[in-house]
């Protein structure tokens, strides 16, 4: 298995396809499908309804509604771009040469650029933050050679792995003072390892039949972990343990979101690590009172 090294991580290498219009079509279609799989529901608007989406967005003045309509418009723009490049590939297969300055290719690029500008309005399905990187990828794939796009993905996967490890290390660090959670680290480390493998593995890779089950089992094992329960412990201490378990579950969910999207979520990661630190302070305060 060939690997490439980026920012401290050895990442599985996939040979890029030839740099053709058909390759770009397949790549943009896959990236668009992946995008809609990770963002909020209801914004996968067909490209044929682009004018309706534009009109609805421009006519809206209430900020919250305008954000959602902007997200719907971004979805319609992405689908219009995919429609255009799909038809161009069909024409190309008939032997018609498509020049790089073709008007429809320019329109495809314009749609992707406008969708990117609206991408900041779209939230991840968790509702915690947007994933701007996902909105930029189809435009990036359209604008540069395929091999350079693949190289840029390795940089993002390395950043994804770094966030996975940051979260896992923060969980272990912030529960290390609690003897009731002594058995926790192996479960967290197993999840982090499985999540890194998930982040580097394409769904089309035969290894996914080993990688995905490993990730699911590691997630389930962590979520079934329970701390030691002491007879007669205070109600407040019991609530603190429950809060710790909720934090662990939330950490597993964030690691899952990051590894599946193969893209960092810096705001969510930062806020989660801050929440862990706050929990650790509360635990120390409660320990002093006990």
Structural overview:
- This protein is mainly alpha-helical.
- It has two domains: 20-144, no CATH class; 154-289, no CATH class.
- It has ten helices and two strands.
- The protein has helices spanning 21-38, 50-59, 63-92, 103-118, 132-143, 146-175, 184-200, 208-223, 235-261, 266-289; strands spanning 3-6, 9-12.
- Strands 1-2 form a two-stranded antiparallel ribbon.
- A hairpin with a 2-residue loop joins strand 1 and strand 2.
- Helix 3 packs antiparallel against helix 4, helix 4 (103-118) runs antiparallel to helix 5 (132-143) and helix 7 (184-200) packs parallel to helix 9.
- The protein is globular.
- The protein starts with a strand and ends with a helix.
- The model has no long low-confidence stretch (mean pLDDT 87).
pLDDT average, as an integer?
87
Output the helix-strand order. Answer: EEHHHHHHHHHH
Q: List the total number of helices.
A: 10
Strand content: under 5%
C-alpha Rg (nearest Å): 23 Å
| Helix content range | 55-70%
Number of strands: 2
Number of domains: 2
Alpha-carbon distance between the two ends: 54 Å
Strand order of the largest sheet: 1-2
């Amino acid at each position: 298995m060939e690997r490439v090294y980026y920012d401290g991580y050895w990442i599985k290498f996939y040979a890029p396809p030839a740099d053709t219009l058909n390759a770009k079509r397949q790549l943009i279609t896959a990236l668009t499908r992946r995008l809609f799989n990770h963002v909020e529901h209801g914004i996968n608007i067909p490209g044929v309804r682009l004018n309706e989406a534009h009109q609805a967005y421009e006519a809206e003045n209430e900020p919250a509604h305008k954000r959602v309509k902007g997200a719907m418009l971004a979805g319609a723009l992405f689908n219009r771009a995919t429609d255009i490049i799909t038809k161009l590939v069909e024409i190309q297969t008939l032997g018609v040469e498509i020049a790089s300055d073709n008007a429809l290719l320019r329109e495809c690029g314009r749609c992707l650029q406008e969708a990117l500008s609206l991408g900041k309005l779209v939230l991840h399905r968790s509702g915690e933050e947007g994933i701007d990187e996902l909105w930029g990828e189809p435009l990036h794939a359209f604008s540069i050679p395929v091999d350079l796009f693949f190289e840029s993905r390795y940089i993002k996967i390395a950043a994804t792995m770094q966030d996975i490890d940051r979260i896992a290390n923060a969980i272990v660090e912030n529960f290390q003072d609690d003897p009731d959670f002594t058995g926790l680290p192996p479960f967290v480390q197993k999840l982090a390892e499985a999540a890194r493998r998930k982040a580097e593995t394409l769904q089309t890779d035969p290894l996914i039949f080993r990688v995905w089950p490993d990730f699911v089992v590691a997630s389930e094992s962590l979520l079934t972990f329970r701390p030691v329960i002491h007879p007669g412990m205070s109600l407040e201490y019991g609530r603190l343990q429950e809060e710790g378990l909720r934090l662990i579950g939330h950490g597993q969910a964030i690691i899952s979101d990051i590894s599946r999207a193969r893209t960092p979520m810096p705001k969510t990661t930062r806020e989660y690590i801050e929440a862990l630190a706050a929990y650790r302070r509360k635990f120390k305060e409660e320990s002093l009172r006990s």
